[in-house]
Amino acid sequence: MTSPQNPWPQGPNQQFAPQQPQQFGQQPGQPQQFGQPQPPQQFGHPPQHVAVPGKPPGSVALASWLGAVWAPLSALIGIVGFAITTMTILDYGLAVLPILINGIVMLGATVCAVLWVVFGGGVRRGRNSARITLSVLAGLWLAHTLYSTVMFLLSFGGNFGIIGSNPILFLNIANLLLSLVVPVVFLVLVFGKQANAYFKAMSVR
Length: 205
What we know:
0% strand; 5 helices; single chain; 61% helix; elongated
């Protein structure tokens, strides 16, 4: 039997009545909602670079290796120069006081070189105490280099023509120049933006 409101017959054939079309992606029984904002899809945004925990940035790694290589090499060159200067002073019978002063300075430079190697690993691992210690050593090394430069220039007595006849002097000059540049480069590297962020991140671990 049919009615005007329901033209489909009632009874055993009710299962053949047409079903309402179902929207794709919509659960049955839930009305489809229009006009609601959907979360925007982001395209073209590169993934954020997350620092690997414990891995130092390039500036910190370079500063660590720079100090570990340069400091012992500079100390070795200084020791050779000190030995040559001492033999020259003894051969000419000059005052012994410069030998004592240079010996104390070279002993301090050797200790600084050893400490530089030891604390260089701490800088690489993000230890702020190691960075502060090596920064102090860099300042002391600069002061030692300035003193050595003054003494080196005064030793010529105004006669710089002998530099060309002595290859050891070229080695000392190169060592002095590097000892003036490398500590400054080290300080710039360990106190740069990336280095500060790395040491700050490692301090909370």
